[in-house]
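Honest question from a wet-lab person: if I give you the sequences of every part of a complex, can you actually get the arrangement of the whole thing, not just the pieces? Trying it with mine:
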Amino acid sequence: MTDDPRDVQGNAGPEVEGAGEASEPSTGAHMPTMERSVMGTLGVALMGAGLRSARPIQKIVLGSVGAGLAAMAATGRNPLANALKIRQSADGDTLVSDAVTIGRPAAELYAVWRDLAGLPRLMTHLERVEVLSETRSRWTVKAPTGDVSWEAEITADVPGERLAWSSLPGEGIENSGEVLFRPAPGDRGTELIVRLRYRPPGGTTGAVIARIAGEEPAQQLRDDLMRFKREQEFGSEPTTEGQSSGREPATSSSPKAGQA
Amino acid sequence: MKAIIWQGVNKVGVENVPDPALLLPTDAIIKVTSTAICGSDLHLLDGVIPSMEKGDILGHEFMGEVVEVGRDVKKLSVGDRVVVPFNLACGVCDPCRRGLFSACDNSNPNHRMAEALYGAVSGGGLFGYSHMYGGYAGGQAQYVRVPFADVGPHKIESGLRDEQVLFLTDIFPTGYQAAENCSIVPGRDVVAVFGAGPVGQFAARSAQMLGAAHVIVIDRVQGRLAMAEAAGCQTINYEQDDVLVALREATGGRGPDHVIDAVGMEAHGHGPGALVDTAKQKLKLSFDRITALRWAILSCGKGGTVSMPGVYGGLIDKLPMGAAFAKGLTFKMGQTHTHRHIAPLLGRIEAGEIDPSFVITHRASLDQAPELYKTFRDKHDGCVKVVLNPWA
Ligand SMILES: [Zn+2]
Ligand SMILES: [Zn+2]
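Yes, you can. This is the full assembly:
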């Protein structure tokens, strides 16, 4: 039941063949003492929170993540980075990538992504993108400490195949990314691959805490891609928001009951 | 409206809740005329399926009359009488287009929760079956919101009674798919069915419809075995007999050509690895249920199929893979692709090949449902299948 073949080797090889950047080895396994103690404390705290939680799902998720953290802090060998699938390049950048197959032609999907000002609709961590010229744009994200903004440049643009960008040196959070559009075998539409690279504030520990808090870009990216797929294929997101349940007070006069 | 509400582990009650409303233009609202309690609802009752929340409306086997449609609904109109598959499917994603409706990519808004728990990509949403399966309100109620209304609901235009078509929503297609997965050679193959609950009953009769030379049903509840015997099946009571010896004897030592595991493990919903510890305690409770799958593998004849309509949720210890390998068995499993079975099975009902109402032992109102959940769980009073009338 390994959902990700990369896990088998415990490192992050190139996830997709034949396009884009060269292989990025993960730093994998060496956690400094300071990080180890932070991890251990966090792990034990999470296990405690999990055990105290009344919600079974929280009990399971918090408890097991906590146990994982504590165990890894104890061994000090294999940092959470691997367990939580946080991948890093040799020079400390965090790498995030994911892929989704969408039943639409590559040209159409590419056109949606090429409209940079519309990107915040696809990538929810983005607050806004202002287009400055054919290749320059200013990107803004909301952060707990206030908005962070940087100027980015399109570094590759092959219509219907690939779009890549990079922040300009010395600007906000250093980051870059690319989107690949590949025809899927058969009549299944387009394989969309997104790769992001950034330097998180707070290093590995920052990335781990962000991941546990559910605000880590890997999860956001997965959600963003699924939402994009659902919009493109079905036209909207499925929802249960606003449906009836025993959590809402019943209205005194039930309009449809009258039809009985 | 009245609805059956999950109020906590082993607590089910009838409550007045707000009527459902259209939430998307592709939704319809259905006035429920008949609904049923499913064996898998019992996993919700005893709390082994995680991510239920107090106040959730239960129920995934229901049918009724369309009373409202969203502006994008094209195939349904107010007044149509429909049966509704228990699983939700968008109809346009790759799995849906391949007929794998239960594996729909797009119908579960909480896919991330399911992925976290299973450790793998999840299937689609289900009505009334926990938040990891989408958190959709169920149909044990007077009205229900039906999303993807052009994809799931199937119109019933003949004069068949509710009780004859209601089980097209789940247990009939589930039993049928289990038999179909066996690729039965008509007139030659012997099929054994472990579990004589509602799905086992339909699996056995579907195996007969698909031409099985002989069908053997294994259970321990006498009333259930009698129901299978009434259909012409041979039965084995595993509390009175050594199942493996009895099956060898019944098949001249070859073993059944195909075995259907209609028991399943209690679906703990635990994911792999990190969640195992939490699950271990419960695994003890479900020990005898794993035994059904083990028996299925050990008894199945060479080159046969082990077909699993029963629900499995996590990791399994001590599966006899050596036996499976030595005999060259094929495993087929998975949630039912209900949508694709409804029309052909409705045809069989209309042709008089089968009357699914044979399985009903209890009929009740919504108010009586909490009590009948317990009767069904404890297999008291000969209970095999309960049908509820929300307007009684
Ligand atoms: Zn069911
Ligand atoms: Zn679908």
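Two things worth pointing out. Residues B 89-91, 93, 95-96, 104-107 surround zinc ion (ligand 2) (CB under 6 Å). Chain B touches chain A through 65 residues (CB under 8 Å).
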